[in-house]
């Protein structure tokens, strides 16, 4: 259709731009995972290691600056553990892993990691330690893990910049 | 701004409807400007807040508790001791520990492994030392390509050796 003469319609078609923006927005919205406030405030040390943190079947031991210990698992693992468990007391403590369960002592840590690994043998252990944690606290965790025969674990670090 | 012209272009319309259209031409134009504005805001928000972070991990293998003693040659053993204030001391075999400035650590490890390919590194960190120190040193060890290394507790004997080294220095 021919428009009327004299009427200059300056009309920029923004549709392609909007399309691209929409795509970008969708991408960012889909990929963003809002970081849940962490169980424990941990500032990670940096390293040049290139192994990525696995996303599932992970059990995380937090070691804070003050030397407090927390145990946490991802949602899927927690569900799996809770479903497989038959002991109500055990189920209860697994359920608490969602928020990160504070360990009273090394024995509790040892006990829970054993139970978790019995129910899910694929479970991998990672240790998230604060960079200012006294090494002794970490050493204790390490010897506990050694005691429960977790001889392979990973330390979570941040990418070293610069 | 952006808009959707509905009923404007006649190309896709049926020929029969053409005449009818010209009579009363209702241009249904939805103004998309506010929507685009909001989308832009959202996009900016997501782009600025997104951090593409996937934490790195460092694998550690520790020997099972019933450890078997392994004999190693004295010359192949490099002991790194980290005392409470973060100072690093090194010694090869059974010699006296020497101070190692932390900025020299990387070069030192690279040199040592070059001179002694089968080098075994033993890391002893004091209980009051920082966890970060251990991670950093382990990282340097990995970077230097030292494949055999182990962690050992910092004992009183180590403390005495360090004291002695300090006095003689």
The span between the termini of chain B is 77 Å
Strand count, sense and barrel status of the largest sheet of chain A are: 6 strands, mixed
Low-pLDDT residue intervals, each spanning 5 or more residues of chain B: 6-19
Q: Mean pLDDT score of chain B, rounded?
A: 79
- Low-confidence parts of chain A, pLDDT < 50 over ≥5 residues? none
Query: Radius of gyration of chain A over alpha carbons?
Result: 24 Å
Structural class of chain B: alpha/beta
Number of helices of chain B: 5
What's the oligomerization state?
A: heterodimer
Strand content of chain B: 15-25%
Question: What's the SSE blueprint?
Answer:
The complex is a heterodimer of chains A (162) and B (169).
Chain A: H1 15-31, E1 46-47, E2 51-52, E3 58-63, E4 69-73, H2 75-84, H3 88-95, E5 101-103, H4 106-119, E6 124-129, H5 135-147, E7 152-159
Parallel strand pairs in A: 1-7, 3-6, 6-7
Antiparallel strand pairs in A: 3-4, 4-5
Chain B: E1 3-6, H1 18-23, E2 28-31, H2 33-49, E3 56-61, E4 77-82, E5 88-92, E6 98-100, H3 105-115, E7 120-125, H4 131-144, E8 148-153, H5 156-168
Parallel strand pairs in B: 4-7, 7-8
Antiparallel strand pairs in B: 1-2, 4-5, 5-6
In words, what does this structure look like?
The complex is a heterodimer of chains A (162) and B (169). Chain A has 162 residues and is α/β, with parallel strands linked by helices. Chain A has one domain (46-159). Chain A contains 5 helices and 7 strands. Chain A has helices at 15-31, 75-84, 88-95, 106-119, 135-147, and strands at 46-47, 51-52, 58-63, 69-73, 101-103, 124-129, 152-159. In chain A, strands 1-7-6-3-4-5 form a 6-stranded mixed beta sheet. In chain A, strand 6, helix 5 (135-147) and strand 7 (152-159) form a beta-alpha-beta unit. The longest helix of chain A is centred in the N-terminal third of the chain and has 17 residues, at 15-31. Chain A is elongated, with a radius of gyration of 24 Å. Chain B has helices at 18-23, 33-49, 105-115, 131-144, 156-168, and strands at residues 3-6, 28-31, 56-61, 77-82, 88-92, 98-100, 120-125, 148-153. In chain B, helix 3 (105-115) packs across helix 4 (131-144). Chain B has 169 residues and is an alpha/beta fold. Chain B is elongated and about 105 Å long. In chain B, the strands form 2 sheets. A 5-stranded mixed beta sheet of chain B has the order 6-5-4-7-8, with helices on both faces. In chain B, strand 7 (120-125), helix 4 and strand 8 form a beta-alpha-beta unit. Classes of the chains: A alpha/beta (162), B alpha/beta (169). At the A-B interface, helix 1, strand 1, strand 2, helix 5 and strand 7 of A face helix 2, strand 3 and helix 4 of B.
């Amino acid at each position: 259709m021919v428009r009327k003469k004299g009427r200059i319609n300056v009309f920029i078609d923004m549709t392609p731009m909007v399309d691209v923006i929409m795509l970008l927005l969708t991408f960012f919205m889909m990929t963003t995972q809002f970081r849940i406030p962490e169980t424990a405030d941990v500032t990670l040390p940096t390293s040049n290691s290139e192994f990525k943190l696995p996303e599932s079947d992970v059990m995380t031991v937090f070691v804070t600056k003050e030397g407090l210990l927390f145990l946490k698992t991802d949602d899927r693992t927690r569900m799996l553990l809770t479903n497989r468990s038959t002991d109500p007391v055990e189920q209860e403590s697994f359920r608490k892993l969602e928020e990160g369960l504070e360990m009273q002592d090394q024995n509790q840590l040892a006990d829970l990691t054993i139970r978790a690994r019995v129910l899910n043998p694929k479970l991998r252990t990672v240790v998230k330690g604060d960079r200012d944690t006294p090494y002794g606290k970490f050493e204790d965790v390490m010897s506990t893990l050694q005691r429960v025969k977790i001889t392979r674990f990973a330390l979570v670090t941040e990418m070293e910049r610069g | 701004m952006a808009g959707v012209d509905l009923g404007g272009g006649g190309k896709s319309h049926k020929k029969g409807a053409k005449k009818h259209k010209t009579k009363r031409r209702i241009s249904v134009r939805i103004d998309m400007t506010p929507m685009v504005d909001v989308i832009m805001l959202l996009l900016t928000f997501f782009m600025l807040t997104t951090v593409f972070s996937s934490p790195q991990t460092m694998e550690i293998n520790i020997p099972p508790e019933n450890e078997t003693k392994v004999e190693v040659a004295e010359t192949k053993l490099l002991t790194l001791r980290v005392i409470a204030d973060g100072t690093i001391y090194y010694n090869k075999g059974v010699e006296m520990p020497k101070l190692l400035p932390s900025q020299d650590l990387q070069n030192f490890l690279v040199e040592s492994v070059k001179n002694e390919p089968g080098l075994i590194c033993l890391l002893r960190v004091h209980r009051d030392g920082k966890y970060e120190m251990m991670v950093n040193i382990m990282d340097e060890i990995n970077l230097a390509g030292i494949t055999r290394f182990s962690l050992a507790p910092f004992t009183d004997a180590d403390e005495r050796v360090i004291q002695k080294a300090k006095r003689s220095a």
